[in-house]
Each structure stands twice: as C-alpha cells, then as structure tokens.
Amino acid sequence: MSEDTTEGQAPPEDRGVPGPPPPFAPFELASTERIYDSPWVGLRRDMLRLGDGQLQEHHVVEVGDAVSIVPVRTDGRIVMVGQLRHTHGKTHWEIPAGRIDPGEAPLDCAARELREETGYEAGRLVPLPGFYTCNGISNHWIYPFAALDCELRHEQQLDPSERMIVETFAPDEVEAMLRVESTTFRPHLEDGGSPRVIDPELRLVGDVVLGGEGQLQDTRATGWNFVEVVDTADLEVALVARRDLYLSIEDVQ
C-alpha cells in the first residue's frame, strides 16, 4: 500500500489558499479541575479570567484523535457501514472511522479500521485535510483518508459492542444521501413526514451556505458543517462534515 503525500508542493499561501487569521492571546487560566476520566473520554472544568476580570467556567471534553475513511472500490462504488449508535439509539449510514491507538500512526489506524469494520483493503490511502469535530467544547481531531482501489479480502472483525453491516453505493447515491436531512434507516421522520431534502442548488461558501438566489443560510439549519477548502489539481474539494456522515465532495462552482 502506498500513501500519497504533498511533498514538493508549494505552501498553501503560495497556492492561493488563505492563511489562518492572526491569533488571539489565550484567556488566562485561573484554575482547572478534573471532573471525569476514562480510557475513552475525559471532562475538565476550566475557570477563565476574562478581559474585564470576571471568571467564567468552560467545560472541555477530551477525546483522543481518530481517523475516518472514504473507501472507494476499484469499480468506483463507495463502501459504507450501517451502524447503531447508542448515544441516540439510531442506525446510520456512515463511513468507517475509529480511535487511534497509543503510538499508532494515523495511516496505520486508517488501514486497520477499514479492515476491521469492512474487510476491505486499500491499494492507496490518501490523506485529506483534518478537522476538529466540535472545537467549541472538545479538542477531538479527525484525520480523514480517501481509501482508493479497495478490494474485499477479509471478514469483519467487530468488537462485541459494535453492530454494523457493510454496503456499497454508487457515488450519485452517496451524493443523494448528503443532500437529505438524515441517513438513518427509517422511511419517515418521527412526525410522519418525509426527510427534508437540501436544495441541490445550494453551494458551500465559507461557513455558510449560499442559496440559489444568493441568500446566506446558517449551516446549522441545513445540517452542514463547513470545514475546509483545499486545492487539488484543477478541482476544488470541500471537506464537509454532516451530522451523521463525513465525506469529501466536489464544491459546486
């Protein structure tokens, strides 16, 4: 298996990609308290001293880094898993993902999670831009990968707590799922209505969605969470995080 790298490419600022904003000075940390710790998650309460001298508490959920994988078979179909999530009790179509073990490289973790959850192996693992999943409350970081030229070579190797099935979809089917409000196994929503479909004319622009008539819409209203736009050859790719689905899709020009 080979890994595509960006070695030899110009820095982002030399390729027309805007750099980060100037950094603010961090808030003064007056105190910190451990609320909970486990092998999976930690919770701490920080007391921050604001500019006016007041104290304000900020809770931080500590979750270890993880990977997510977009597996593409040699015939172009995309491999996904239908997984039960105990947090909300629903089963969703998702892409394979999992925590990075201590001392494990993200690339190795991506290959392992792909194999364990789907039985597939990738001919190539291509790193995509990483992102914080919910940086208002957590430092949880995702290393996404595109797994290309995937072939089925193994049986699933699931933990006792994992309930998932494997299915493949054509790219246009996955694109259709991205435009629907939910990827759960249910013909209708709880109120009896059909899932709301996002307007296919919507375009991702920064952290908002641009509608057909140019109006700006809050991404929370559509279920999209914009992450990053990167330049890859002649194609702009927007890495977006849906509530239930992480995929790399073409930005509409």
Write a concise synopsis of the structure shown.
With 253 residues, the chain is mainly β. The chain has helices at 106-118, 171-178; strands at residues 2-3, 28-37, 41-49, 55-63, 66-73, 78-85, 90-94, 97-99, 120-121, 124-127, 131-132, 141-152, 164-169, 203-205, 208-210, 216-218, 226-232, 235-241, 246-250. It has 2 helices and 19 strands.
Structure commentary:
- By secondary structure, this protein is mostly beta strands.
- It has a domain at 195-253.
- 8% of the residues lie in helices and 43% in strands.
- The protein contains two helices and 19 strands.
- The chain is globular and about 60 Å long.
- Mean pLDDT is 74; it is low at 5-10 and 181-253.
List the helices and strands and how they pair.
Elements: E1 2-3, E2 28-37, E3 41-49, E4 55-63, E5 66-73, E6 78-85, E7 90-94, E8 97-99, H1 106-118, E9 120-121, E10 124-127, E11 131-132, E12 141-152, E13 164-169, H2 171-178, E14 203-205, E15 208-210, E16 216-218, E17 226-232, E18 235-241, E19 246-250
Parallel strand pairs: 1-10, 5-12
Antiparallel strand pairs: 2-3, 3-4, 5-8, 6-7, 6-13, 9-12, 10-12, 11-12, 14-15, 15-16, 17-18, 18-19
